[in-house]
Fold:
Amino acid sequence: MVSKKLQRVDFIFDCAGCEPIEVVKKALKMTREEVVSSIIESGLKGRGGAGFPTGMKWKFAKDEVADTKYVICNADEGEPGTFKDREILDVVPNKVLSGMAICAYAIGSKEGIIYLRGEYNFLLKKLNAQIDEFNNSLSKIGLDFAVSIRSGSGAYICGEETALFESMEGRRGEPRNKPPFPTKSGYNGKPTVINNVETLVYTAMIINMGVDEFKAVGTMDSRGSKVFSVSGDTPKAGIHELELGLNVADFVEEFGDGDTKAVQVGGASGHCVPRKLFKETIIGFEGIPTGGSMMIFNSTRSMFNVLNDYLEFFAEESCGQCTPCRIGTQQLIKGIEHVKKGQMPSEYLDQLIKLTETMKIASKCGLGQSVANSFSSIVTNFREEMIY
Amino acid sequence: MSKIKLTIDGKKVQIEQGKTILDAAKKINVKIPTLCYHEDLCVAGNCRVCVVEVAGSRALQASCAIPAQDGMEVRTNTPKVRNARKDIIAMLVSEHNTQCTTCYRSTNCELQTLSAEFNIDNNRYLSILKPNIEVDRSSWSIEKDDSKCVRCQRCVRTCSELQHVNALTVSHKGKDMKISTFHDLPLKDVVCTNCGQCVNRCPTGALTERRYFDEVWEAIGDPTKHVVMNTAPSVRVALGEMLGYPVGTRVTGKMVTAMRRLGVDSVLDTDFSADLTIIEEGTELLVRLKKALVDKDDTIKLPLLTSCSPGWVKFCEHLYPEHLGHLSTCKSPQQMFGALTKTYYADKKGIDPKDIVSVAIMPCAAKKFEANRGEMKDSGFQDIDAGLTTRELGHMIKQTGLNFLELEESSYDSIMGESTGAGVIFGATGGVMEAALRTAYEIVTGKEVPFENLNIIPVRGMEGIKEAAIKIEGALPEWSFLEGVEMKVAVAHGLINARIIMDQIAAGESPYHFIEVMACPGGCIGGGGQPIPTNEAIRKARVAAIYEEDMNMNLRKSHDNPAIKTIYKDFLKEPLSHVSHNLLHTTYRKRQHY
Ligand code: SF4
Ligand code: SF4
Ligand code: SF4
Ligand code: SF4
Ligand code: FES
Structure:
């Protein structure tokens, strides 16, 4: 696999030549089918982490026959180390709204909702004002669609799309069984497209700049660019939009502090890449996909502590309904503690890695399934730190 | 309904659209282990014990929760599946207080069975059981031990879906997730009706009824005590399930023998007081009708609601306290029995009531609470000293080492051991209504109810709310005001249906004169104290046995019971008499609703 060089891009925050309402108008000149097929053709995959092809999601929802359909913007950013959605909503909210409007047009929805993380409530006042104005402009250009905001109650799990619906419907935020998938039966049992904040901006950008220009960026598997939240041992912490497909080595050269020993790609639920694998690891769907969080660790960091923190986070934030995730996370914490203290033999780590395999295939939702990523990558690559 | 085709373990199966993989597997006798799944409840898909491989998906799928799809290829027994299941069960065990030897549910516990089947050897994982979990023993009826909870949420689903009470809920998340009550209050202080339906669906020993059999054994062993046991109608058609008989077997005679062999002094039949309830309650209905129709007394509350199900009564007290006036003032058969044991029976037998220990064997958990209600002391003593469940009686019989299958049959003792078919059918939903109509109609018209063989089919069956109407024709002179009146009645079982009935009443829109309500699905045969497991098929089999018992009785109308005639002649004088009022009727009170 050949990696791309590190290249900065500015689709998201650049405000030149992109008047959001104009983009919506542009979409309205296309047929609904054309809009959907443009998004499919662009190869855009969801930027929330799971990476489902956005255009397919829209197509499924468009093909459903229903009196009501919803477009939901998932702004429940809860992954430790990400703060990009907040920035997007703060700086270019109209681009998010135009993405929602375009989706609404494409699938035939009249109602859009932004599910905003409780911690971001400080954005509410400004956002609401912008939404009012945007809704107004939409009615002027003849699109029967209005957006409103719902404030989240603060649990990480509510970022999982079906748990988010449960929460919006006034129940406990627990993921649902899938199928049925949201495009068939989502919020209030109606066909729903739920996209993350960043994804929605890209859909608008694709319509604005055209499929070809978007496709020219990134790789076959990972089209376009991506906003990264960079944190940890780096002099350049913050938000950076980069072309997808670069390798970790180049990333570290740009963002590391010269003493980088590992990079956690994708936050707590992502993979930990050790120095020896920097070159061969590509950031993108052909390598390690990421929701955007990039955490850089230099040699002074204890990877045991890093893992322990992640696991404690999961053990808290699991909804607790399914066995592999609720108990698995606790077993992993207790297990590594025991090994570290010498109360269990180091081989127990292998048993625990097997356990994460079970969690990966048997948990009900992405949370429990992804715990395996950070666990096995850290334990495998930094085994000695787990033991002594 | 369109059919879909799929293969499971290489075998083809056809099933209706919308059914799950588990349903499809059952159809071809492929057994998939389950834990959070229960036939009576909505799908949860949260324990993950039932995972299977579906071709084309990376992750395993919970077969209880995933719809079968056309062309699906399912494998239920691959190394991947077996290993995941074993891991999952081992995880559940690691979170669990594995004191099986001291656990009430030992040998009838789904977790125990699963771990035995999968041989969770050597504690694969470290114990993460939380220290210092206290058992909630605050309630008279239900015990809750979180150290044995597998968080399957069956209880939560039961309480909300079947009962619409919502006393139990899930609280906290992650490692702290647990089954809780409003503000984590003790069970005695929340809206719990003690119906025990959650207990009946809990797969483990996390929710159990409070046991009183040790106290009963002690009384039996005490020569100065005269122990009287009476058994509810539905116990005789369910007890056999615990003792080696197929579901739906009537074991009345063997049960009576067994109880005698336990050493109790007198084995009596709650059906007797069921018959008595019919007389008192039927009369109460007719009196209310008269006051309302003839005297135009607008303070009279109609419809009249039955009051023999203590779970239902408590439900009303919590959630519809403004409408308690609709409840019949009659005590339940259990409490009538108790009050009479310590008065009429004591007198007839010449025993000092303080030496009598009255024990009721009930299909029910709420009966324990009822027995301990402060107002249930009208005889001057506690009317009922201990309310035991069918399960507890089953345990007592096992403890004696009796070979139940081989026992000879015998009949109840006399003085409150005599009953009719009307008393027996109290055990099934609609039974009280049917028994009441058999009597009330005859009181009013002097003729039998106009149904073949006295079988009032419209009030039978498993529908949530059943309705019937009987036109009164040829009323006797003193009841002439009822001539031509169409008596409208309804029967509801399961508290979710009780809510519908009560909402109608609260809205002033109830079209009925008389309504029977039972807290448990199927009535007492599906009670919270009945043998576990329970499901629709089991409930139906028990109901069938109840009606069979009725058909086998010589007398099938409460007012024909000679012992009832005697007790009115010798003691009570007449229905709703002063003595009746003192001993057989009661009052209700408002309770908090959280
Ligand atoms: S994987 Fe974790 S978060 Fe997801 S349903 Fe299971 S317990 Fe809940
Ligand atoms: S609940 Fe079941 S597994 Fe747990 S201690 Fe009791 S019998 Fe054993
Ligand atoms: S006993 Fe009945 S009301 Fe009480 S918690 Fe259980 S199901 Fe709910
Ligand atoms: S109390 Fe019983 S039914 Fe309820 S969640 Fe726990 S194990 Fe399941
Ligand atoms: S039985 Fe299917 S997930 Fe529990």
In short: The beta strands of chain A are 70-75, 111-116, 146-151, 192-196, 225-232, 238-243, 260-265, 271-274, 293-298. The radius of gyration of chain A is 21 Å. The interface with chain B takes residues 155, 157, 172, 174, 177, 179-180, 314-324, 326-331, 334-335, 338, 344, 351, 354-355, 358, 360-364, 369 of chain A (CB under 8 Å).
